[in-house]
């Protein structure tokens, strides 16, 4: 049994879970398989509204796979299947009448590598607004683009060059452009899959600040391999690990899920403590 | 210990190998030049006799029987064959390209995983089927069972269409026709276009597709707005390859186009194409006619060259435009 660390190893950002925050996602006994390989097993956790939930763990632990269950991106992987309970605001996310397109308009995603389209900055942000049911007028579109770029803390840097290519921006700006593109459709949740792993420390710090602001409006779930980042930015942290079953098959498991402050200072599981104190992974 | 870095043994194989591959490379130019010069040279008297322009535009083709390079007796207007080539190739590409895009997209994005490999192997196998087999199958099975009823239906339903004097579906229906040849050509070039488009789509950056999916794009929107724009140059190249094959295709067209020396605006009429006419006539040709057939060959070669250069220009131009945006 872990006893807790004498001194915290990582500075904690000071965020704490909100008492009684509504549950956005409820995961119960979730398994994800690729073909016959059950890659992630028995994950149960609740994700709360307007909190930042961090998923951490060594590579191969299934944290990204779990993230991709939440907006049904796994549907795009041939042979992938999800079992168990994944409820989004009380409704089964994998129910028969659920449209994965609609799911992804509510639950946006930012990827590991900044992936702006080879289009102008404006067109990148307006991209998600140009299809789907509601056709916006030009002035509404302008407003939405400005609002999205403002909430992504990018407006001041690009307002004079909205027509230049998104690829001309720096890596950190490109990632904020992708965040602007994701929030432009006014989603409920934004998923971020290692959003800073391709960025330098200064760009990373900007994105981390941005996450704090975004959490006022959106529910954020981030996957990160950077423990310090999880400690700095999140309210709750889920620690995953790669396990080997009796038949020698590697798979991901959720070890511990709790308030970030508790995970990093008083982890309940020895494996969590080993990981956050750098003894493995 | 002294290490010497000078050559320790004689190497004969290396220089020999270099010479061999250099020769092999040079042979490309030799063959191309030899073919162009020889054909043009043989055809030259005909162009002189008829005039190059009237050879292209004249619609009378009467083979003569002179045995020398002068005293020609025929009339050589190759327009009916040029027209037949253009029309059948255009029909083929117009039908094949959209279908190829759909098939390629299905294989890459929609087909269940276990079907993908068998499907793409089958496409590649179809691309390798000799054209005589397409021609026989087209003539003996497709034409009487599918094409003829279809052409008759076209004639009875759309025969009235008259676009400023052009009646594309005017009867009578004989079966063998521009449209029949064009449709069989389309089936023939479909696999080669599909195979290339499939590869082009397969190397399309997945991260941008995922970005679009994550914004709630449907598969159709991802194909139309992400995959197609960035695969455009590859798709152009594939179509040009298909078009080139359609323009040069001989046997299958010969069996289905009806082999007449006249031309007609109706797609349901019989006609002839350049390649098919050469193949059908050179066996019994007099020396004069042989030269005239060579002249058709030169025109055909010019056509394929124009298609190739056009494709390169298009790809280059698109590459420059989208390259600017992507910098």
UniProtKB/TrEMBL annotation, chain A:
One cellular component term (GO) for this entry is: membrane
The Gene Ontology biological process terms listed for this entry are: phosphate ion transmembrane transport
Identify the residues that the record assigns to the ABC transporter domain, covering every copy: 25-267
Protein name as annotated: Phosphate transport system ATP-binding protein
Annotated region Disordered: where? Answer: 1-20
Q: Which UniProt keywords apply?
A: ATP-binding, Nucleotide-binding, Translocase, Transport
Q: Which SUPFAM superfamilies match?
A: P-loop containing nucleoside triphosphate hydrolases
Pfam families, per the entry: ABC_tran
Q: Which organism is it from?
A: Streptomyces harbinensis
Record bears the keyword Transmembrane helix: no
Q: Which SMART domains match?
A: AAA (SM00382)
Q: Which InterPro entries match?
A: AAA+_ATPase, ABC_transporter-like_ATP-bd, ABC_transporter-like_CS, P-loop_NTPase, PstB-like
Extract the GO molecular function terms from the UniProt entry.
Answer: ATP binding; ATP hydrolysis activity; phosphate transmembrane transporter activity
Q: Is Phosphoprotein a UniProt keyword of this protein?
A: no
Automatic annotation (TrEMBL), chain B:
What GO cellular component entries does it have? plasma membrane
The UniProt transmembrane annotation reads 16-37, 81-107, 119-143, 178-197, 226-247, 292-315
Highest taxon of the lineage = Bacteria
Q: Enumerate the UniProt keywords alphabetically.
A: Cell membrane, Membrane, Phosphate transport, Transmembrane, Transmembrane helix, Transport
The protein's matches in InterPro entries, at most eight in alphabetical order, are given as: MetI-like, MetI-like_sf, Phosphate_PstC, Phosphate_Transport_Permease
Q: Name one GO biological process term.
A: phosphate ion transport
Please classify the protein's predominant subcellular localization into one broad category: membrane
> Which family would the database say this protein is a member of?
Belongs to the binding-protein-dependent transport system permease family. CysTW subfamily.
Relate the protein's function as given in its record. Part of the binding-protein-dependent transport system for phosphate; probably responsible for the translocation of the substrate across the membrane.
Name the UniProt record assigns to this protein: Phosphate transport system permease protein
Taxonomy of the source species: Bacteria, Bacillati, Actinomycetota, Actinomycetes, Kitasatosporales
